[in-house]
Amino acid sequence: MESRQAGGETCSSAEHALQAYEKHGVGFSQHLQGEFQVVLRDGETVLAANDRFGLRPWYACKQAGCLILSPAVKGLLPLLPGAPELDPVSVAGFLTFNKIRLGNRTMVKGVEVWPPASLLIQTKGKPVSQRSTWTFQYNDSMSEEPASDSAIDALVVAYREAMRRHAAVQAGRRVGISLSGGLDSRTMVGALAPDEAKRFSAHTYGLSDSDEVLLAGQVASTAGMPHFFYPMEADDFIRHADVTADVSDEMDLFVQGAQHLWLVPAAASVDVMMTGLDLDVTLGGIYLTPDVLGARNDVEVLDLLRKRNRIFTEEELGLLAGPSLRNDRQAPYDFARDLIRALPQNHPAAKYDLFINQYSMRRVIFARYGQIRNYMETATPMLDYHFIDLVLKLPTRQRAGHATFQPFLNRLCPELCRIPYQRTTLPPCVPVRFWADAVRIEQEREKLYFRIWRETHGEIRVPYRRYYTNFDEWLRESPAWISFADQRLLDPAARIYGMGIAEPQAVRRFVEEHRQGQVSRRQQIVCLLSLEAYLRRFFDAHE
Prior knowledge:
alpha/beta; Glutamine Phosphoribosylpyrophosphate, subunit 1, domain 1; Rossmann fold; four-stranded antiparallel beta sheet; 14 strands; 45% helix; disordered N terminus
């Protein structure tokens, strides 16, 4: 358990969790700040709990009348009565949405992940009781009044205090910040006092000539923070393609395995890595676009999810799905519809935002964050309880499109706001009304470079280097990536074919369309490569 403070009570170990239980009884987990999993036994009573946000999730299965818990899906596989079976609805959901997981299902039949803020109580001779200790819920108000100065100031004070506590708690330990060219990680740097920044270190990885890496360097230099850069090239992202399956709690994009290259050396100099997590979604309201704000009911929320978040369309999935999935192609939409109805929000825009938070951020992005724990301890101030409570009080429309985030950031660290950030390539001191145009211009620039490549038949190539990677280019041009995709996806012995998940002719069509520049199939190909890596790792071993 990480060190945190809540209401003046420090919780830094199992001992402090026990003290919280002695003081508060079965409600003890509500008084533990930070990320945690805890199991506590008191005589004939056993309690198990996790943190508010599911940063440390419990996975569970029932066998022979017993409930078995594990911090990772792979910990439960040897305990299943036979070979693990794929859940076809979850597989169809992964191919449909990819960055969204369906409720608490996993890819393995009979294994579920607990919701965040769960508390289980088991007393001998009594039924098991499981309940929620906290509910994540946005303010449904759609007030168009901008956030007040006092509200923004309160956010700044709370965030600085969260960082101050982190610095105090980690005193004597080597603390790093995973620094990108975005804004979430920049807030951590900007919230540190100058003397604190010098004892922290910043860590960045990716293509050395990318905008994202260069901007991260500027932020660290301006803050006077030691900066460690770990260069990576295209081949690195496939050389470690199978690492992700070994270290992630559940299936994720195989390219995340490249983190191994920077986390190993970083662990030699860092005890705790602080990571930007979710601030763009919570305070930044990045998903609250005009069409989301205009949604009128649950049907339109589902339509937006279908339009904006799917990987394979219904038609594409119809071509792709093998015999194991043909009857479940519509199931992800039906499941998503039921999840939308159950959300504790009134306004459709807030429902959409909470759906993304619960089933994309918590189930996917947080899992990537959890990979770091295989190498070192983790911490994130962005989900500090007091700070997030202030965020949740903001009307939904005030969070939309960085409307409150931009003034918050400029008051937090004005000197860092003069440095551009990678999404817009504008410095965030620029009024937020210009940001959407900047994003559109960047998207047009990327499309232009692609057109040049396609219409010159690959003779002229202008590299697009806004991000620390470029999977789109690599899948078309990198010999190593082309060979890797051929070996994993075009081989008749691929697991996605042997398990009846995909049709070979459809996969070949998608791969060739991308390579020839007819259609960008980057997301679909990476999705299939991730699924293939997962099947090889977790299902081959149990054949």
